[in-house]
Write a structure and sequence with these properties.
Layout lengths: L6 E3 L26 H11 L5 E4 L6 H9 L2 E6 L2 H10 L5 H19 L16 H4 L2 H15 L4 H18 L14 H4 L6 H22 L5 E5 L16 E6 L12 H11 L8 H4 L16 H10 L1 H23 L1 E11 L3 E2 L2 E2 L2 H10 L4 E9 L8 E2 L9 E2 L3 E8 L3
Parallel strand pairs: 1-9, 2-3, 2-5, 3-4, 5-6
Antiparallel strand pairs: 6-12, 7-8, 9-12, 10-11
Helix pairs in contact: 1-2, 3-7, 4-9, 6-7, 7-9, 7-10, 12-13, 13-14
The structure holds S-adenosylmethionine.
S-adenosylmethionine binds next to strand 3.
Length: 417
């Protein structure tokens, strides 16, 4: 039976009114986050308590959080150090007592600063290229002061928790437009009036995240979760912890190369630079499809779409092709460490380039098919609440946009003995 016959729309997967920020899911935004309800429903259908889940492109760890609530151990991989930090923090058992005493210590300093009994000392401001372009002098001083306070926190898990709130604060108090994931500065005439309350914003995030943490710790099962610095295209996946391989994959890979689809690296850059994380400016190049590839994919479900694009724009066709070569290689590596009775659930969007639709869902089913997986079904859902750019530039010409993905596909394949 063809992939198409097993593909159907199911609006019950839209989760239109669902709270997507429960538990630690509220910690930090990120482009194209999976909504927890999808992972939760898939775990209910295919998860087995005590077994192992893999998310090869885990981002901020939505599947891993849900696995720990469900009772599955999990391993996540991502090339982006900022999201690895977020995913780790979202799945870690953090001592609420230690957290409270550190929050109190920081709040006391805020109080002294606000009431003039202390002054923001000349804490060193990190040497970040172009910093003045993105932050006012006042904001830089406040962020540097915060960082100094955070660095005094000894408990690593608590420090990471506070760093995550700091990271989201950095983006919010910068001159970046919030309407886009890319780094675009707000218009010049608005700069002067932009005077964010750095400590106030940070404090709100700490309080919000603490509430999320409390509900998470109440429900979290006693399972392992580990997050690895792994480029899944390069085939360096972590050896399976369970004997025989991972049993379940719930993941959402990138929709296309970061340069023309979702700019994960640009989104993370300012925070990553303040936190001196590695590769702060290289994530989009390291991501799938980030480097050119001369090989041409033949006889795959995307081949005819790539040929059509090629007849319009050869360069774009090569970029698109490079992404699918990477995705295919990454799937080969993932399939090699899955058990003989495993299920994969890939949430993918079929993006449009030069008005040609790329059937990524079929490509995923085809790629796993080469490793003994059978396509079970593809559920099509509307995207009412995922943070995605609703418009992109398929022509890659500034100003030329068209509506992009309003739907995504949950591709489910299974390998049985
Ligand atoms: C759609 S996002 C995942 C979002 C995640 N499900 C969440 O809820 O936050 C895709 C992720 O793939 C990562 N990525 C891109 N190329 C990768 C590669 N070659 N290996 C591992 N991760 C990669 C990106 O850094 C990004 O975080």
């Amino acid at each position: 039976m063809s992939v198409w016959n097993l593909k159907y729309k199911d609006e019950s997967w839209d989760f239109r009114t669902a709270d997507t920020k429960e538990y630690t899911h509220c910690f930090h935004t990120y482009p194209a986050m999976m909504i927890p309800q999808i992972a939760r429903e898939l775990l209910n259908q295919y998860g087995v308590e005590g077994e192992w889940l893999l998310d090869p492109y885990c981002g901020t760890g939505t599947s891993l959080v849900e696995a720990s609530l469900f009772g599955m151990h999990s391993v996540g991989c991502d090339i982006n150090p900022l999201v690895r930090l977020i995913a780790t923090t979202k799945t870690t058992h953090i001592s609420l007592n230690t957290l409270d005493s550190e929050i109190n210590r920081i709040n006391e300093t805020f109080f002294e600063l606000e009431f003039g009994t202390a002054k923001i000392t000349d804490t060193p401001i990190p040497d970040i290229p172009n910093l003045d372009y993105w932050f006012s002098d006042e904001v830089k001083k406040h962020l540097a002061c915060l960082l100094t306070l955070i660095n005094k926190v000894e408990d690593k898990a608590v420090r990471n928790f506070i760093i995550v709130a700091f990271s989201e604060t950095v983006r919010e108090v910068s001159y970046t437009r919030t309407s886009t994931f890319k780094l675009h500065r707000i218009p010049a005439e608005k700069l002067e009036n932009f005077q964010p309350d750095v400590f106030g914003i940070f404090r709100k995030k700490i309080n919000r995240n603490k509430q999320g943490l409390i509900t998470y710790l109440e429900k979290r099962k006693d399972v392992e979760a580990s997050i690895c610095d792994v480029n899944t295209v390069a085939g360096e996946l972590p050896m399976p912890k369970p004997i025989g391989g991972y049993n379940l994959v719930i993941t959402s890979p990138p929709y296309g190369d970061s340069q023309t689809t979702v700019a994960y690296g640009q989104f993370s850059r300012l925070s990553a630079e303040w936190l001196e994380l590695p590769n702060a400016r290289k994530i989009d190049k390291l991501a799938m499809g980030g480097s050119p590839n001369k090989e041409i994919l033949k006889n795959s479900p995307i081949s005819s779409a790539v040929e059509k694009i090629q007849s319009i724009d050869e360069k774009r066709a090569h970029e698109v092709n490079a992404f699918y070569i990477d995705l295919g290689q990454s799937i080969d590596s993932v399939a090699n460490i899955l058990s003989r009775r495993s299920t994969i659930c890939y949430v993918v969007g079929n993006r449009r380039v030069k008005d040609v639709i790329l059937p990524t869902d079929e490509f995923v089913a085809y790629s796993f098919g080469k490793h003994g997986f059978t396509h079970k079904e593809t559920i099509v859902r509307n995207i009412p609440n995922k943070r995605m750019p609703k418009k992109n530039s398929p022509s890659n010409i500034v100003g030329q946009t068209s509506s992009t993905m309003n739907e995504e596909n949950i591709v489910i394949c299974q390998r049985t003995d």
